[in-house]
Design brief:
The chain is α+β, with helices and mostly antiparallel strands. Helix content is 34%, strand content 24%.
């Protein structure tokens, strides 16, 4: 029995005596680290070529570490199922042994749903396309063909082992014991090894490759190639591109370590104008978890079925549903099969046969010589696979002959630049299908190294290579756009004049402004990044492009108050102090600028804002905030988020103390949850000064919304620990029928748990019946008033009933009946206190005041 470290937060525990090889930790690109370490190798037996590798996964109990998701088990499981052959009919490795998923219940259940969604996408016709039953049925038939005729349940795909006791048997005499937070011990035949899934100081889930550095030109129409590999290529990022139109960069698909790929070509997530999304396999999807936490909402472009599929995966991964998705992204649905206008860029999504909901993209822009086109074709299926999928009639799994012909014709439609998936196998393209492709420049992508000489056609783009389709910088100006964010009401001519100021470059480590020195220029950064330093020279804040340095000091006529230095090579517009001061006076902006930067100096001390890197976003928050001074005992009950400047505030849930917060602490996060009433209250413990940021300023800032979401979840967890199933006035929603049913359910929980062992089954069945009756009542009431969230609410009901049935099985198999309390606490917090409150305004009622 051995354990081997293969990367930060990733190791392999081998227990050959039990036939187990356990991947401990599975962040993005874990499979590539395994390949580089030699833990995954190629083999050939009896005419079958396949891979070795782990057959079990131990999940992290901490969902996010160092800003990145810890559990992304889809690709490790896909490697086991398909590349090792555990699910392929007739494969010698298909012995009935399923990949094992090990972890705490919450993580295991979330990843099981995530893996199912990554393997099959959406399998319910109503959820796939609620507006077109025929289209949904056609897609389901196609997906079933890829799935060997049927969708396997999670139980058929995975062997789930929940760590819900002191020591758990895995199989073959191997056991796992929890030692502490994210620390475990494997035991077999009297020997033991320890696995620590915690990231150490300074560690982060990184990329398995080193990328060459370059810059992204802002052309009228060009393509920057930032990925030609697939999810199994350890030396290259997954297939992706940046399409630049009129200077605005758009990302096409977001695979693992997307931030590293963007950084290598001189871009940040905040530079992007949006993302075009083909489908939700992790090598095209997992980067959304970074994009959805950008400082400013990115536009999300996809056809509705792909958007729904993305939401399904995010719901499993981190409980982000449709409403929250629309807060983290600026959702822009596209129509398949036609040209959509995206700020002057033509975009056509084209349906592509694939196991998941998938479209490929064609992009079109006009230059002096007419239209130019770029085709980004990921993912494809080979023509042989497409032909094999043709079914004789609509009752069979597969596609029609007409659909097959349309797909192949679309794949071969010429373009000035075409990038095609030639990854091979069952779900990727074959380069031979494109031998006679008439495109001007054909790029072969999404696979291992391609022998171009042997093929005799096509080529592979280098990382960072730029294909210019329409040259020229157009009429865009990064400087004008950034200045307009700081001074939205200023005349265009004045903004253009400032933007035309001379440029200045700063080398990495060079000081941009020194505290105490004269503010001779206002610097506006156009790329690179800056560090704000404290008095001892330590970085306190990192800022991406668009940072404005020296502006407040020029407005106030004082020396630089803070030191800034370039943390990488940075270009800035250098506006002379005299010109900048005249601009402020002419437009009456000096006082507002000074006040906003004064507020900003206080806000950036809050941990909730610590992750933001966009000074324009921080400035907007500061400029919109107002300072409020409150006395001892005063309640903080306004709409928005309070950031404490001084004093102490006690946060409570009913009569339960949640926490006391001081300067930099935050309260009011639940006012953004689109739920009437409040669960928590906050009272000043002595004189207090706070800054109140209005909801309108917070909307459209996903990184802040995410931090507030995490804060709300942490406070809910504290409330859950103190929750007792005795009725309290703060539980009331203000709707008599619903409140009466909730009280009956409370009584039934107490009777089920506190009664004698004899008769438990009957009491538990009564509880289940009351819950199902309650759910039916809610849905009838919502339907009667036309509540728009009925479909989502009904889905939540179905999930809760399924979880309750599973819990009943666990209780019957010997688990302690008292565990129902923990489960019902989760139900009550998640459903009653949050989801039920959303429909109250539609019922003409609201929860009691202050709740």
């Amino acid at each position: 029995m051995t354990i081997q470290r293969v990367g930060d937060g990733i190791s392999i525990a081998d227990i050959p005596e039990a036939g187990l090889s356990i991947l401990c930790g599975c962040p993005e690109n874990a499979v590539k680290f395994l390949i580089k370490s030699g833990a995954i190798r190629g083999r050939s037996v009896k005419g079958f070529s396949y891979e070795t590798g782990p057959n079990a996964i131990l999940l992290s109990e901490i969902s996010v570490q160092s800003g990145r998701f810890s559990n992304l088990a889809e690709f490790p499981v896909l490697q086991m199922l398909y590349r090792q052959g555990l699910i392929i009919p007739g494969h010698p490795n298909n012995t009935g042994v399923r990949p094992m998923l090990i972890g705490l219940r919450e993580q295991v259940e979330a990843q099981a749903r995530y893996i199912y969604a990554g393997n099959y996408g959406i399998t319910s016709p109503d959820a796939l396309d609620p507006d077109d039953a025929a289209a949904a049925a056609s897609l389901i038939r196609m997906k079933k063909k890829f799935s060997f005729g049927a969708f396997k349940s999670v139980e058929e795909l995975l062997d789930v082992k929940v760590i819900d006791g002191a020591i758990i048997e895995l199989r073959g005499g191997a056991f796992i014991r929890r030692l502490g937070v994210n620390r475990y011990e494997f035991i077999c035949d009297g020997r033991a090894v320890e696995a620590d899934l915690n990231l150490g100081p300074g560690e982060r889930y990184g990329a398995p490759y080193v990328l060459p550095r370059s810059t992204t030109p802002r052309d009228l129409f060009s393509v920057v190639h930032i990925g030609e590999g697939d999810g199994w290529d350890p030396e290259r990022p997954c297939m992706s591109s940046v399409v630049v139109h009129e200077g605005r960069p758009y990302l096409v698909d977001a695979g693992p370590n997307i931030e590293e790929s963007l950084d290598a070509v001189g871009l940040r997530v905040g530079d992007l104008a949006g993302v075009f999304h083909t489908h939700v396999h992790d090598d095209h999807f997992v980067g959304l978890t970074d994009l959805m936490r950008a400082d400013r909402s990115l536009a999300y472009y996809a056809v509705p079925m792909v958007r729904r599929s993305a939401i399904e995966k995010l719901r499993a991964l981190c409980d982000v549903g449709e409403a929250e998705f629309a807060r983290f992204f600026d959702v822009r649905d596209l129509e398949a099969g036609r040209w959509n206008d995206v700020d002057g860029l033509g975009v056509m999504p084209v349906f592509s046969p694939h196991p998941l909901e998938t479209t490929v993209f064609r992009f079109r822009a006009y230059g002096p010589d007419g239209p130019r086109t770029y085709a980004h074709y990921a993912d494809l299926s080979s023509f042989a696979v497409i032909d094999s999928m043709v079914a004789a009639d609509d009752s069979e799994a597969g596609i029609s002959a007409a659909e097959a012909a349309r797909a192949k014709a679309a794949y071969l439609e010429p373009a000035d630049l075409k990038k095609v998936d030639v990854g091979g196998g069952m779900i990727h393209g074959d380069p031979e299908d494109f031998r006679n492709d008439a495109s001007t420049d054909l790029l072969l992508s999404h696979g291992g190294p391609v022998d171009i000489r042997a093929l005799g056609f096509g080529r592979v783009a280098a990382f960072g290579e730029v294909s210019v389709l329409v040259p020229g910088a157009g009429e865009w100006s990064a400087a004008r756009n950034a200045l307009a964010e700081y001074f939205p009401g200023a005349p265009d001519g004045d903004i253009a004049s400032l933007a035309a100021s001379p440029r200045r470059s700063f080398a990495e480590g060079e000081t941009v402004a020194t505290a105490g020195s004269e503010a001779g220029f206002a610097f506006l950064t156009l790329d690179g990044s800056l560090e704000r330093l404290d008095g001892g020279g330590a970085p306190t804040l990192c800022l991406d492009y668009g940072a404005l340095v020296g502006a407040a000091e020029i407005a106030a006529g004082i020396p630089h108050a803070v030191t800034y230095r370039a943390s990488q090579e940075t270009e800035a517009v250098a506006v002379p102090a005299a010109a900048f001061s005249a601009f402020l006076r002419r437009n009456g902006l000096a006082d507002g600028l000074i006040a906003a930067f004064t507020a900003l100096d206080g806000l950036i001390l809050s941990p909730v804002l610590a992750g933001m890197r966009s000074m324009p976003c921080l400035y907007e928050l500061a400029a919109s905030s107002r300072l409020i001074e409150s006395s001892d005992g005063a309640e903080l009950d306004g709409a928005g988020v309070y950031v404490l400047a001084s004093g102490r505030v006690a946060v409570r849930y009913g009569d339960v103390a949640i926490e006391e917060i001081g300067p930099g602490g935050v309260y009011g996060e639940e006012s953004l949850a689109d739920v009437p009433g409040r669960l928590f209250s906050a009272a000043c413990a002595g004189p207090v000064a706070v800054r109140l940021i209005p909801p309108a300023a917070i909307d459209g800032k996903p990184s802040l919304l995410w931090s507030l979401r995490e804060l709300f979840s942490r406070r809910l967890a504290i409330a859950r620990a103190s929750l007792e199933f005795r009725w309290r006035t703060e539980y009331a929603l203000g709707e008599p029928t619903i409140d009466a049913q909730h009280r009956r359910i409370f009584d039934a929980i107490n009777e089920a748990v506190n009664g004698p062992a004899e008769g438990f089954d009957g009491r538990f069945s009564l509880l289940v019946g009351l819950i199902e009756e309650h759910f039916a009542t809610e849905e009838d009431m919502q339907s009667a008033v036309g509540y728009p969230g009925l479909r989502e609410h009904s889905r939540e009901h179905r999930l809760l009933v399924a979880e309750l049935d599973e819990f009943a099985d666990r209780v019957h198999s010997g688990h302690r009946a008292v565990e129902i309390v923990d489960y019902m606490k989760d139900c009550f917090i998640r459903h009653t206190l949050l989801e039920d409150r959303k429909y109250l305004p539609w019922m003409g009622c609201c929860p009691p005041p202050g709740r």
